Structure formats: C-alpha cells, structure tokens
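For the sake of clarity, the format in which proteins appear in this thesis is described at this point. The record quoted next illustrates the convention:

___
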Amino acid sequence: MVEQVEFVTAKISDAATISMLRQRIWDTTYRGIYPDAVIDEFDYDWHQQRDLQKISNPFFTVYLIKYGDENIGYLIFRDDDTGVWLHSLYVLQEYQHIGIGKQAFSILKNYCNEREINCFACNCSPHNENAMRFYQHMGGVVTKTDTGHENRQEDGVIFEFNLNEYHHSFKY
C-alpha cells in the first residue's frame, strides 16, 4: 500500500485541497485538544490564503500526499535563515501507521543532506500522543517545552533532529 503513495509538489490550485484536508485531519487529531469552535467553525478562506502564501514562497516546500487519485495528506517545511522547520505533516487517520511519515522524513532528510544541513526541528502539541511517539521514534529530542496554557492549543514542544544521529537510527 505504501508503495502507491506519492508526494507531489503542490501547485497554487492545491491550496483549497490542503485546507480541506487540514480540517478533516484536525477533526480526528485535535478534537478535545483544540477548542471545538476551531474545528467546527474552520475558516477555509483564511487557511487557503495561508497555504497559497506558503506554496508561493520560495522558503517553503509543500507536498500534497496522494494515494492513487485520492489526496490523503500534506507535508510542509521551511528553510530560511532560522533553519529548516517541519511545519506540517498530516495524513488522514485511515492512512496512518503504514510508513507514510517515514517517507516524509526521508524526503526531509534528503533535502537537508543535499544542502549539507545537519539538523531540522518541528513544533508539536504535547497532547497529540501519536505525533509525540512518532517524532521520538524518528530520533527527535525535545529541546523546549511550553505547556500549561488555559487553551491547550497553545501548548507546544520543540523537537530537534540531528541528521548524523538520525541517519544511524533511520530505517529504510
């Protein structure tokens, strides 16, 4: 099944698709973490504009993840003077735990290796237990924790990935 997954460079016309995927994925991932209104009253236009900006920005790399003809997720990362940051790695729940995340990390790792970049980072909700386990499994080390906010959506941890160490634990 995972061999039928494709990471396709997103085009301007994919911004609406990414926004729709975001709402569907947030509904299954962040229900109970984010306030219900954030999910139930999801502002598609606002998110689509943000996605258009990222797709158009040369500092961002945006992929639509496809399984056959179906759009099942997206990968967004940024490379600028602050370093390489994984912004979003979201996959529909029914396609999780089959190796797509590992494929995404392979893409990110190759991107960094080609540019002789030694590490990258991401922010994660500490309440998203699946993502926390995945990032730890992929070699991430928590370098900052900001928790205890009244709105749990504001809580976050930063994971850093050292590619030299990551390379030794990476399984192809």
Notes: Residues 166-172 have pLDDT under 50 and may be disordered.
